[in-house]
Design a protein that fits this description.
Layout (H helix, E strand, L loop, with lengths): L10 E5 L2 H4 L12 H6 L17 H15 L3 E5 L2 H4 L9 H16 L3 E7 L5 H4 L9 H16 L5 E6 L1 H10 L12 H23 L3 E7 L3 E3 L4 H16 L2 H6 L5 H6 L8 H7 L5 E5 L4 E5 L7 E3 L17 H14 L4 E6 L10 E2 L5 E2 L3 H19 L4 E7 L18 E3 L6 E3 L1 H11 L6
Parallel strand pairs: 1-2, 1-13, 2-3, 3-4, 4-5, 5-7, 6-8, 7-10, 10-13
Antiparallel strand pairs: 8-9, 11-12, 14-15
Bound molecules: methoxycarbonyl-substituted glucoimidazole.
Length: 451
């Protein structure tokens, strides 16, 4: 592997999300979100974990920015909790919520760190869920109104905006399989939620063009699908899985239509949408964020509703979340994106892995607190190299946000999975940069040459 030089100005950063790190979800006038509710619903969260404390970032944000500075991060991707800004989701603005994020942005800028702000990372205000949430078509206007409040307060200091984080996970987890908030299980609701998410994305981008002066994009999780065998059944299964996860959101956002497979997959549960919706959804974007973690070797199998299955690789390496380590998939995916959607600027807005880390730091012979995480370093090194392979082949990748800055609440898996490059002792809230953070700091300082 040759020591790659990334493009001049490559944006090296790390990512988090509000509900996963902040804690204090109801502080200073904030309203509950669907995750506050979901976490306090018995049986929904591993070990009964909640986001009530998390990494206490709501109080420790200055310390955390200082750690970002110490590591030499150039950027920090975070999300805003909608119900801190609008406790009922619409109407009354909670100034204390705006102040929290405004202070965070100022601290980042004062430390030479560019903020990338995600408007929605899954924590819908509970009050809007009571009004139908992503199933209510009015949510496109609710979301655009929320976005306008933040555009007016922060645009200029924030120059890279993201509307949605991973509409696929919101829909597949929250409305089809029910494993994420709001915990619905309906193949009739899923397409409606998906479509309204994309309408809301379009409405927020349209609103940005009236108010904002910088850049806005969409973040999707996409995953390359490889056939388990040469059979026609497995090839068809790959087409279904690829359309359902990888094209379902990018196609309407960038091409103005859904992939045809979705109508076959959902059958009578797939509505016919008005042409005006596609015009709303397909707004010009300044960039797309890609969240990459793994691939799927896919076969035809009985499953709901895709009739596909994933084949575990006997010689594969797997993370704590059961995801195969497959860096080549990121190169393949970036080339697919370029060949399918053209030369839109791309950011890797999430990439990382959960491997076992101890609950507390060890102390080495020199008396330093250490967390050795060689598997994570190897994962990151290989994926950064895969990104560089794609850049060498002409893909316009402009930055990388490591998931995650801190160990944090892994949604319904609670605190059982550690993705952070900085270890969090959840008893003491002590932060300890892992070896991977110290390594990443050198990668940033050398613009990738030290990989
Ligand atoms: C299904 O994998 C997705 O691409 C994905 C992985 N992840 C995500 N999306 C979310 O954006 C984060 O909030 C998660 O903490 C993170 C780690 O699980």
């Amino acid at each position: 592997m040759t020591a790659p030089n990334f493009p001049e100005g490559f944006l090296w950063g790390a990512a988090t999300a509000a509900h996963q790190i902040e804690g204090s979800p109801l502080a200073d006038g904030a309203g509950p979100s669907i995750w506050t509710r979901f976490a306090h619903t018995p049986g929904m969260m591993l070990n009964g974990d909640t986001g009530d404390v998390a990494c206490d970032h709501y109080h420790r944000w200055k310390e955390d920015v200082a750690l970002m500075k110490q590591l030499g991060l150039k950027a920090y991707r975070f999300s805003v909790s909608w119900s801190r800004i609008l406790p009922e989701g619409t109407g009354r603005v909670n100034q204390a919520g705006i102040d929290f994020y405004s202070n965070l942005v100022d601290e980042l800028l004062a430390n030479g760190i560019e903020p990338l702000l995600t408007l929605y990372h899954w924590d819908l205000p509970a009050a809007l869920d009571d009004r139908g949430g992503w199933l209510n078509p009015e949510i496109a206007d609710w979301f655009a109104d929320y976005a306008r409040v933040l555009y007016r307060a922060l645009d200029g200091r924030v120059k890279k905006w993201v509307t949605l984080n991973e509409p696929w996970v919101v829909t597949d987890g929250g409305y089809l399989h029910g494993v994420l908030a709001p915990g619905h299980r309906s193949k009739y609701e899923a397409p409606i939620a998906s479509h309204n998410l994309m309408r809301a994305h379009g409405a927020a981008v349209k609103a940005y063009r009236e108010i904002g002066k910088h850049e806005i994009g969409l973040v999707v999780n996409i995953e390359p699908k490889y056939p388990a065998t040469e059979s026609t059944e497995d090839a068809a299964a790959v087409r279904r899985a690829h359309a359902y996860m990888n094209e379902q959101y990018l196609h309407p956002a960038l091409l103005g239509h859904y992939p045809p497979e979705l109508k076959d997959i959902f059958g009578d549960a797939w509505p016919e949408w008005p042409a005006a919706d596609y015009d709303l959804i397909r707004q010009k974007l300044d960039f797309v964020g890609i969240n990459y973690y793994t691939r799927s070797v896919t076969k035809a199998a009985e499953s709901y509703p895709l009739n596909t299955g994933v084949v575990r690789q006997p010689l594969g390496t797997y993370t704590e979340t059961g995801w195969e380590v497959f860096p080549q998939g990121l190169t393949d995916l970036l080339l697919w994106f370029k060949n399918t959607y053209g030369d839109l600027p791309l950011y890797i807005t999430e990439n990382g892995a959960a491997f076992f880390d101890p609950p507390a730091a060890m102390v080495d012979d020199d008396g330093n607190r250490r967390i050795k995480d060689p598997l994570r370093m190897d994962y990151l090194r290989k994926h950064l190299s895969a990104i560089h392979d794609a850049i060498r082949q002409g893909v316009d990748v402009r930055g990388y946000m490591l998931w995650s800055l801190l160990d944090n609440l892994e949604w319904s898996l609670g605190y059982s999975k550690r993705f952070g490059m900085i270890h969090v002792n959840y008893v003491t809230q002590q932060r300890t940069p892992k070896d991977s953070a110290l390594w990443y700091s050198k990668v940033i300082a050398s613009n990738g040459a030290s990989l």
